[in-house]
Amino acid sequence: MDAILLQILNGLDKGSAYALIALGLTLIFGTLGVVNFAHGALFMLGAFCAVTLNNILSLSFTTIDPDRTDFLGNPLKVETPYVESWFGPEIGMAIIQWSVPLSILFAIPVMVMVGLIMERGLIKHFYRRPHADQILVTFGLAIVLQEIIKYFFGANPIPTPAPPAFAGSFDFGASLGLEPGQIIYPYWRLVYFSFAAVIIAAVFCFLRYTTFGMVVRAGMADRETVGFLGININKRFTIMFAIAAIVAGLAGVMYAPINSPNYHMGMDFLVLSFVVVVVGGMGSLAGAVLAGFLLGILESFASMAQVVALLPGINQIIIYLVAIIVLLTRPRGLMGRKGVMED
């Protein structure tokens, strides 16, 4: 039971990232009909927003402390972050330590700007082009963004710590009445799962209960009819592209303490997220979320030592095996609309 609960938690953790990226992919495909292979790069940019803000908040100036000396007896040079000089040592240090959550406020306008530039500057020219063209141009864009990040931040992962309040682990076993110390799980991974749940719920509520969202859903079903009503549906779809960029960016921001940001992390998640979208059903938001969590849990169980010992390498291919089975038996995916991917 302990092992099962731990694998479920691990699966929810992985599934949260898969679901958030797949949700943004599905928003773009469902509204614009574009297969966006640069979406993983947006996830990467979000993670590096956290790195950038942490670097900015850590900027410091050098002062001489005459009361302290180094091992040679010279006055000691002290590096003092600017935020500590502005807000005081306690508040300044707290701001630096909480840079990842604060990066959410930094990442939102950045991702809006990146999303709008991508959509207006490049992707809008490929709306009516074949999906193969869309894949090629967005994949090329992803490589360009990846190389830009590599140039400015280097090729090595950059550790981005979580706030000290969430640095420890939670004893799930004790809270569930089981033996203490058997199910220990990091606090920040629980925070990430909760954050993902909030973002997913917010997107669904926005689409279902706001006038803007209702018009977008109508446009996804029949763009021409909505256009005949005098509604500028293309403008709303552009905004949805920016929202999808925000979702991917925020997923990357909060994932930074879990997996140290590096220039190829977007590609690592992109392929798996596309598999998630296909399994869930192309254009189905609910299917993308459901498939994300299901495949995350399945991958977690396939990574257990007992399973790997019995079937070596199964943890590396399990998601693709599931995708093959789903495509052979139900080409439209678990929750895809009838006729999609079936002709």
Automatic annotation (TrEMBL):
Its main location: membrane. Keywords: Amino-acid transport, Cell membrane, Membrane, Transmembrane, Transmembrane helix, Transport. GO terms for cellular component: plasma membrane. GO terms for biological process: amino acid transport. It is a multi-pass membrane protein. It is found in: Cell membrane. The keyword Membrane applies. This is ABC transporter permease. It comes from Pseudovibrio exalbescens.
